[in-house]
Amino acid sequence: MKKNNKFIVTLFSIFLGLVVGAIILFISGYNPIEAYQVMFMGIFGSPKYISYTIVRSTPIIITGISVAFAFKTGLFNIGAEGQFIIGSIFAMIAGYLFKLPPVIHGLVAILVGALAAGIWAGIVGVLKSKFGINEVISSIMLNWIALYMNNYFLTFPLLRRPNSDASFKVLDTAKINFLGQWKVSEAGKAFLKDNKFLRELLNPPVNYGFLIAILLAILVWYILKHTTLGYQLKAVGYNKDAAEYGGINIKKNIVVSMMIAGAISGIAGATQVLGVEHQIGILAASQGYGFNGMAVSLIAGNNPLATIPAGLLFGGLTYGGGKLNSLIGAPSEVINIAIGSIVFFVAMPKLFEMFGKIFTRRKRGENLD
Amino acid sequence: MTTEKMDIKAIEMKNITKKFGDFTANDNIDLTVHKGEIHALLGENGAGKSTLMNVLYGLYTPTSGDIYINSKKVNITNPNIAIKNGIGMVHQHFMLVDTFTVVENIILGMETTNGAVLNIKEATKRVEEISKKYGLLVDCHAKIQDISVGMQQRVEILKALYRGADILILDEPTAVLTPQEIDELINIIHSLADQGKTIIIITHKLKEIKAVADYCTIIRRGKKIDTVKVEDVNEENLAEMMVGREVSFVTDKKPINRGKKILNINNVLIKDNRKLNAVNGLSLELHSGEILGIAGVDGNGQSELIEGITGLRHIESGNVILDGKDITNKTPFEIINSGLSNIPEDRQKRGLVLDFTIAENMILENYHKEPFSKKGRLNHKSIEDFSKKLIEKFDVRPNNPSQKVGALSGGNQQKVIIAREVTNNPEVLIAAQPTRGLDVGAIEYVHRYLIEQRDNGKAVLLISFELDEVINLSDRIAVIYEGQIVDIIDAKDADERKLGLLMAGGGVNNEKK
Question: Which residue windows are transmembrane per the record (chain A) (predicted)?
C-alpha cells in the first residue's frame, strides 16, 4: 500500500471508530453530538486541558515507540507494561537516593530507569535467542513479576514513606517538571497570578517527558533508517533466514532489539515518576501504560514518528472522554470502545480494499452475487 | 485421437482479460481446447499462463471475457463450480496431508460413508478402478510422507479424477520429477488423453511440449501470441515465440583451464532437522576454473550439504577447507568473508529480504563495509549508486533501486541475488538451483554469468535438479545419493540416462530394472 493510502486509511479508521462510539452513545440514550462536543471542549477548552492531554499522552507515546521499534525488528513487545514498571521503580530509587545537582540528577535517574528496564527486557531476548522461547509468553510472565517486584520494593523501610501506600518522593533535583521550581516560588506565584493563560498551562504537571518522547521518536526513526544497526535489526525482523544467510548474527540482534525496546519503555516509566507522580505506589493491577502503547503503535502503523500524533489522539480521547461521565452522565467506557474500534479498523486495511472493490463494481453496474 | 473427438470443444475461453489494479495479467486471450487433446500453455514467468488457468479453475474472476465448457457458457466463480463442471487442477505444490494414506487423501472432502462411518473399503475399490484404468500406479494404503514425489503427483491426479474431472490442468507438473518419473508421467498423460480426458499443461520446458502436447498456445506479457500444432514447430521456434527474440541453447564456454584445489570437503557428516544423517561422510574436491555439478534427486542431502558449507547448519564431523583455511562450522559472516558466496536454493526464504528494496538487498552481505556505511551510519547515496550500476549491468526490471524486492518477478529476484553474489567476486560460488522456476530467457542469462565466473578462474559448485543444466554447464558431474557421492563423471561422458540411474541409486553397470 502506498504511504498516502495508509494515512487516509488511518484517518478513515479514526472517523469510523468515532462513529461506532456515537452509535453506542445513541443506543444508550445520549446525544452523541453533545457528547463529542463535551469531549472536544474537554481537550481544547482551556490551556490547562491541553497541558493535561499532553501529560497524559507522554508515557503512552514512549511505550508506543518501544512497541513500534520492536515490531519493526520482528518482535512483539507485549512486555512494555513490565518494562515501564521496572523503569519507574529504578528511576524513583535513583531520584530519591542519589544526591546530584539539578538537571543531571533527572537525566541520571532516567538513564538508570532505562538501563534497568533494558536489562529486564534483555532477559526475554536471551530466552528467545538461546532457548527459542516465544517473547510473548516470557514477557507476559515478566509483566507480573515486575508488578509484584514493585510492591515488594515498597516493603523496604528504606523506600516506603511511613503511613502511606507509596514510596518517598523523589528529590526536587531529580524532578523533570517544566519550570517546576519557579512555579511554586514566590516570584513565580506572583507572576502567574496576573497571567491566567500561563497559570492554566502550567497548572498540570507539565514536564520534559514530551520533549524526550519527540527526541526518542526521531532517534528510533534515525536508527532504523540510517544506521547499520537498524539495517541488521530490520533484516532480522523481516526475514531472519535471509539475515542469517547474509552473515548477520541473529541471536545477538534479538537480544539487542529487546534491550533497546525495554530501555525505551523504561524511559516512559521514568518520566512518569520524575515528571508526574514523583513517587511509586502499591499496584493492585496493571496501569495499562504498556498495553495502551501497543494500541498507539498499531494506530501509528508501527511508524515511530507517527506514534506522536497517535499517542496524542489516544491521550486526548481518554482524557476528554473521562469528562463524559461527570458532565452529561454518559459512561466514559464508550471511549474505550471507540479506541478499540479505531485499532480494529486500522488493523484491517483489507476491509477498505473490499469496500473499494464493491464500490467500483457498483459503479460499473456489475452484479455482486 | 479420432477426428470425431476433436470436434467437441471442451474448453473455450473468449476474450479473457484479467487486471490486477493497473497491471493487465491477461489481455484479451482466446483459448480453445478440444476434447481429448493435450494442450500446452507456454510462456515466460509472469507471462500470465497461471493467471489464465486460475481464471478457468475459479480462483480468479476475470475482469471481462466468457468461458464455455462443452459449448455451454459457464460462470466459474470458485473452484467448487469448476469441479462440478469437470475441471480438475494439479498444482505445482502438492496439497496433500502427509500423515494420511493415499486413499484418505483422495477421498478427503467427499468420503464414502455408511451413516457416519467411513467406508474405506468401498473408496479403495473405486480408487483402484480409476488407478487401473489410466495406469496411475499408487500404493493405496501407504502414507504420503513415505511415497516418492512421482507417486504423490499421481495421487493428486487421482484426486482430480475421483472428483469426476474430464479436464485436467497440470501446473508445471515435471518441475519436481526425475527423468524416469517424467517419462512415466508422459505415458500417463497420453493414456488419459486416449481415453477422452482433456489435458492442459502449464510449462516452460520446450522439450516436454514436444514430447507430449498436440497443440501449444504461447502467451507473452499477458497476450496470446499464437496457437500452434506442435508437430509443425521445433523447440527454437517455440522459444522464439515465447521470449520474442532468438534464444541460444548452446552454452559457449572456453576450454577448461583447471587451477589449484580451492575447496576441499572431507568426509563430512551433517544431520537434517529430524536428526538423521542427511550428508553421510561425503567428500568432494573443487578446483579453480571449473564448474562441478552435483546431480541428484531432491532430498539426498543437497540442501544440508550447502547449509553445512555456508555455516548455516552444524557439521557433525569431517571438515571443509577453503583455500587452505578451515571453515568448518565458522559463522556465515566469516565464511562469506573468506571468499565463498552462495546463490541459495530458496531465493525467497534465504536469498532476499522481500520487504527490503532492491538497493537494500544488494548490500545484504556488505552493508557494514565502506562505502556503504561508515562508523555505523549508512550511506544511502553510495548504496543507491552501487545498486543502479548492478541493476543496469544485470538488467533487473523494474530498474528502480527503491522498489521492494517482493514485488519483482521470480526471474528478476534471482537476478538481484546473482548480481550481489557475483559482484562479491568469490573464489568459490555455490549455485543451488540457480534457475529454478525461471524461463529460458532468464536461464540463458544465469548460465552466462556462471560460465563467466568459471572462465575468470573462479570455482563454481552447481547443485541442480535440472539434468540438462548440470550436463551443459559442468566440467565434471558428481552424483549424490543418500548423502554420499556415488560417482564423479566427466560431463562429456554424461547423458540423462546414465545420470538418472546413478541418481536413483543404481550403478551404471548393475542396472536394477
Answer: 7-29, 49-71, 78-98, 104-127, 139-159, 206-224, 254-274, 305-322, 334-352
